[in-house]
Recover the amino acids of this structure.
């Protein structure tokens, strides 16, 4: 009988996030295929797991996958792990999973940590529908072209970014997107210096550029979808009522800021409506 391939999620920071099932799976398999054997060895030592390791990374996975499939055809079971989180999400492993399935080998997920899902769940942005874009292009021109394309996206989307490119990525995004566009930056999720902040693109871009700590670690950036223009032309009745009440007590600037927090509407539309109200045009 063929063996089995287990796709095992590992902690992204806090070792206590490793599931009981994941530990038991790694103890029972014949072999563990890891993105970086040195990295995963520390995790195995923490949980008292002593199993053979083999490297499976982006430079050898096509060739190594064939040998691993042959082992499973001989009855061995193998666990696939990445350095952190769920394998194949911007990590190696696709050739092995694809080849195993082609050869009628059972592939079973052992779910657990995923930086993308963890960040989305805490973002406060709509995630009934979302898209994941992986890592952004490395050059400024390619990033700007990508952002230009995403201007038409009406749903929430997310990407991963590294510490040495996060500032440039946000600056390139600011060159394309409105400065008040809503984003969330999540860094070092589950680690000691975990930081999850949301707000306007321009404000968060400035924070990253002026705060050294905000340029350290691993990042997930979540971006609100662009609202269709038809939704932005006028305020709803309840939004107008809230804005009118605030204008009776506050300056336009303060009223607009408070109304944006309460209603979730764009400041630009609220500001124009406030001006119209005070001028008697609305």
């Amino acid at each position: 009988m063929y063996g089995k391939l287990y796709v095992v999620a590992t902690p992204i920071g806090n070792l206590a996030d490793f599931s009981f099932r994941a530990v038991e799976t790694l103890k029972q398999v014949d072999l563990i295929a890891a993105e970086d054997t040195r990295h995963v060895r520390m995790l195995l030592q923490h949980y008292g797991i002593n199993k053979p390791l083999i490297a499976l990374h982006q430079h050898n996975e096509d060739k190594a996958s064939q040998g691993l499939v042959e082992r499973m055809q001989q009855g061995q079971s193998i666990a696939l792990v990445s350095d952190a989180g769920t394998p194949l999400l911007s990590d190696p492993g696709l050739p092995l999973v694809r080849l195993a399935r082609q050869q009628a080998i059972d592939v079973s997920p052992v779910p657990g940590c995923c930086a993308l899902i963890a960040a989305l769940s805490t973002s406060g942005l709509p995630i009934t529908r979302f898209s994941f874009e992986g890592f952004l292009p490395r050059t400024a021109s390619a990033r700007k072209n990508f952002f230009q394309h995403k201007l038409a996206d009406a749903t929430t989307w997310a990407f991963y970014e590294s510490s040495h490119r996060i500032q440039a990525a946000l600056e390139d995004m600011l060159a394309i997107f409105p400065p008040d566009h809503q984003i969330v930056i999540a860094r070092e999720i589950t680690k000691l210096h975990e930081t999850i902040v949301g707000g306007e693109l321009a404000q968060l871009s400035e924070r990253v550029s002026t705060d050294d700590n905000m340029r350290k670690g691993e990042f997930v950036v979540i971006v609100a979808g662009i609202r269709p223009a038809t939704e932005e032309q006028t305020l709803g009745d309840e939004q107008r009522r809230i804005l009118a009440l605030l204008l009776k007590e506050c300056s336009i600037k303060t009223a607009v800021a408070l109304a944006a927090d309460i209603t979730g509407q764009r400041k630009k539309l609220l500001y124009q409506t406030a001006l119209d109200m005070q001028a008697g045009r609305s």
User: Anything to note?
Assistant: Residues 151 and 192 are 34 Å apart (CA to CA). The chain has a mean pLDDT of 93. The longest strand covers residues 130-135. The chain has twelve helices and ten strands.
